[in-house]
């Protein structure tokens, strides 16, 4: 079957890593029509908007998008395209699998956990005001609807992917109402999933346990702010942001992206490592039901990285983006 997929190459190293990933996907046998769209500063120049309506329509129509990184100006200019996409398409769940990859330098081996982060509320609702000069109030919004929705997503994901346990991460001992509502919503959803163990950890203790014994965790489910922080902490456990995938998933659309940025310092030099976006594309393949292609690509990535002779500079090698991409393609049938 041919899939129609919205492609957002992005800017900086975005076009280099997306074209590498598309090449690997097609070499592995994915049949796809790519509906390519600009976003961010390039879209602003051509269409007068950072998030053109045609792009949103394309994702709504195709229901799946693969997205390269997009530059966000610091301290001014336009607001983040990534946040705009999440809001416009109501991508309520952020999925961040954290896998140890053979031979990638890191402190631990055998980590295989998944973070599910609520993506729409909490302290990121953007509701802040100055009460009087020198006093600012930032509102942390937790609703039963959003907590229940993301909890269902986490338990469904666990069941579909053979996971055994969902751990809710919270601070309900202090924020008894807000985080208390999150926790009680998760526990209520858990009643419908007797095959999955549900437990919980207070966020500070969870961070300590993650750093000391990360392999004990399976699926971690948390509100927006803790999810943002803990998912980067976990990326650090397996070698950094350059090798972790991510997806933002809603009821009717899903956007798969790398979590690193547009790397302006190496853009256009052919040095970018496409692994993070490739792993995100593997999540996309599984979302599309293309498990065989996903498995083949994953085996090829492991083979090339384990072999160690072809690596990009960020992983201590000398290979260009194209040399690394070709090495993966050569290993697809090995
Ligand atoms: P960055 O992730 O772009 O770069 C940090 C460092 O990591 C740089 O030295 C860069 O060369 C290196 N790096 C990143 N990705 C790499 C890759 N695939 N291969 C090899 N090296 C890589 O973070 P930075 O510099 O803070 O952000 C640059 C721009 O990207 C900013 O405008 C930021 O807002 C944007 N950004 C966009 C994201 C997205 O679209 N999802 C996420 C994070 C940042």
What is the CA-CA span between the terminal residues?
24 Å
**C-alpha geometry:** globular
CATH architecture of the largest domain: 3-Layer(aba) Sandwich
Q: What's the arrangement of strands in the largest beta sheet?
A: 2-1-3-12-11-4-5-10-8-9
Low-pLDDT parts are none
Average pLDDT for all residues: 94
User: Which small-molecule species are bound to the chains here?
Assistant: 1,4-dihydronicotinamide adenine dinucleotide
The helix content is 40-55%
Q: Please state the CA-atom Rg, rounded to the nearest Å.
A: 20 Å
Strands, count = 12
- CATH homology-level superfamily of the largest domain: Isopropylmalate Dehydrogenase
Total helical elements: 11
Largest sheet: 10 strands, mixed
Query: By helix and strand content, what is the structural category?
Result: alpha/beta
Q: H/E order of the elements?
A: EHEHHEHEEEEHEHEHEHEEHHH
| Highest-level CATH class of the largest domain | Alpha Beta
What is the beta-strand fraction? 15-25%
CATH topology of the largest domain: Isopropylmalate Dehydrogenase
Number of domains: 2
